[in-house]
């Protein structure tokens, strides 16, 4: 069942011990705006999937992050989110992964669910159900004469 969050309010997401971000809801408007981001549109056509994922993740985070806790500068002083600071935060691999898993992937789960195929009747995904009824008796063949 698809459950709708009708409150559509920002939420806190834990990205690492002591690090959390306050994020806008992952809405259609936010995703469309991110797809139109100049840095996303400037990605070369021959860019790898990984390069595209990083550029999109950073562009999305720049739009989604409202506040954060547990993030500071090189001297350990707390800093506020800025586009440069958000990009630097997502350059930390475990943070990028956590952002993708706790925020982005939850929004994409519905998309993934609608693109699922039935299990293959043989092989590693054995288990698909038959769609045709079994034949009751063999068909008659014409006599060859």
Q: What is the multimeric organization of the chains shown? A: single chain
Which whole number gives the mean pLDDT? 82
The radius of gyration computed from the alpha-carbon positions, rounded to a whole number of angstroms, is: 24 Å
Query: Fraction of residues in helices?
Result: 40-55%
- Strand percentage: 5-15%
Give the biggest sheet.
3 strands, antiparallel
Measured distance between first and last alpha carbons: 62 Å
Number of helices: 5
Q: Which overall shape is indicated by the principal axes computed on the Cα atoms?
A: extended
Q: What's the order of the H and E elements?
A: EEHHHEHH
Q: How would you sum up this structure, described in words?
A:
The protein is built from five helices and three strands; from the N terminus they run E-E-H-H-H-E-H-H. Helix 1 (28-35) crosses helix 3 (49-64) and helix 3 (49-64) packs across helix 4 (83-90). The longest helix is centred in the last third of the chain and has 22 residues, at 93-114. A hairpin with a 2-residue loop joins strand 1 and strand 2 (19-23). The chain has 145 residues and is an alpha+beta fold. It has a three-stranded antiparallel sheet. Helix content is 40%, strand content 11%.
How is the secondary structure organized here?
Elements: E1 11-16, E2 19-23, H1 28-35, H2 38-41, H3 49-64, E3 65-69, H4 83-90, H5 93-114
Antiparallel strand pairs: 1-2, 2-3
Helix pairs in contact: 1-3, 3-4
């Amino acid at each position: 069942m698809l459950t709708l969050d009708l409150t559509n309010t920002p939420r806190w997401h834990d990205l690492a011990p002591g690090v959390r971000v306050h994020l806008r809801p992952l809405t259609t408007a936010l995703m469309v705006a991110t797809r139109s981001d100049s840095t996303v549109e400037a990605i070369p056509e021959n860019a790898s999937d990984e390069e595209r994922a990083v550029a999109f993740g950073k562009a999305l985070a720049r739009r989604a992050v409202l506040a954060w806790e547990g993030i500071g500068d090189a001297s350990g002083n707390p800093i506020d989110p800025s586009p440069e600071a958000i990009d630097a935060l997502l350059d930390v691999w475990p943070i990028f992964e956590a952002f993708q898993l706790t925020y982005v992937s939850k929004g994409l789960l519905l998309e993934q669910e609608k693109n699922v195929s039935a299990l293959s009747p043989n092989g590693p995904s054995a288990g698909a159900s038959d769609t045709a009824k079994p034949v009751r008796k063999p068909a008659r063949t014409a006599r060859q004469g």
